[in-house]
Amino acid sequence: MIFAITIISVLAFALTNIFAKKTWQTFLSVIFAAIFLISLGFITANDHYHYGMKKVTETTTQTLTSTADNKNMNMLLYQPLGDGTEKIYLYKTNESQKKPKTTGTDHVTNTVKKDQTKTQLRTDKTYWVY
């Protein structure tokens, strides 16, 4: 609906400016310009504040096994990136897995908690729904 109002106000603004000969037609074009700018403000606010939407978080948990080839050693491997402050963790979800999987790099926060009873990977995925 807001897009229709934006398009109609732009067309009305253009037509009133092209054919404006009287003072009231110029005043009408200013009103259409104001409607256009207000509708652009509502489009920007909708994109920023997510009107009519709510944030949903899905949590999945996977148990992990050691990434080392030796079965007696419990080990979590990582690869430092850049200056070493960011890390990609390598993990396996079962014993028969040949190649370890990696954690993501975009919009990901990796936290390692030591002294836990179970080794697991918890993934929280957050997105917007209507």
Q: What can you tell me about this protein's structure?
A:
With 130 residues, the chain is an alpha+beta fold. The chain has two domains: 2-51; 62-129, no CATH class. Helix content is 34%, strand content 25%. It is built from two helices and five strands. It has helices at 2-18, 23-49, and strands at 54-63, 77-81, 86-91, 101-102, 120-129. The strands form two sheets. The protein has a three-stranded antiparallel β-sheet, with no helix packed on it. A two-stranded antiparallel sheet has the order 1-5. α1 packs antiparallel against α2. The radius of gyration is 28 Å and the shape is rod-shaped. It starts with a helix and ends with a strand. The model has no long low-confidence stretch (mean pLDDT 88).
Task: Note the total helix count.
Answer: 2
- Report the structural category: alpha+beta
Count of domains: 2
Number of strands: 5
Shape by Cα distribution: rod-shaped
Residue share in β-strands: 25-35%
Distance between the termini: 16 Å
Helix content: 25-40%
